[in-house]
Amino acid sequence: MRAARRAFLAGPPRVAASLAALLWSGAVAGAASLPTPSAPPVRTERGAILSGEQARPVFAQCSRSAPRGAQPDWTPAAEEVARLEARLPGFIDGLGTEAPSRPVSQYRCQYVGFSRDGRRYVYANCFAHDYADGDPRPEYRDAWLHAPVVVCDGGDAFFGVEYDVASGAFANYAANGPYRPR
Fold this sequence. Notes:
Layout: H1 2-9, H2 13-24, E1 42-43, E2 47-49, H3 78-93, E3 107-116, E4 119-128, H4 129-133, H5 138-141, E5 158-164, E6 170-175
Parallel strand pairs: 2-3
Antiparallel strand pairs: 1-2, 3-4, 4-5, 5-6
């Protein structure tokens, strides 16, 4: 099934974004609706905090690096994510030519807590807001609030970055690979 998911998700980013949430949420391909989340999402200024099993697929990005072997082993507090969100524009601006082509205000992000070497990190899985807000069907437009967005290709409309909670430092920024029509 994993190979089929990868091949399917390699299609156009617009289609893949909507359907990635469906596939990664554990729903059966061809199902009429997305599963109902077990709890209301924790919203932040720019995104949503994901936790537990629902967050695991965020680490399985297919056209960019993500924290390898990471497990969602803690849930970030809204205050920790607020600090990340406040610092993210400065970090992105400091990337220079590697920075995404859109301002940070035009992205939505999913935040997932993980640990490495005894330190707590938040992985920010970010995507252009029109991928989250553009679908007229509420069940798909709001799916990103509780189902990880995993899109193959799409360029810098999709990126991820790690945030060290204790130091406030960002590391390992990676954008998706470019969209390549087949």
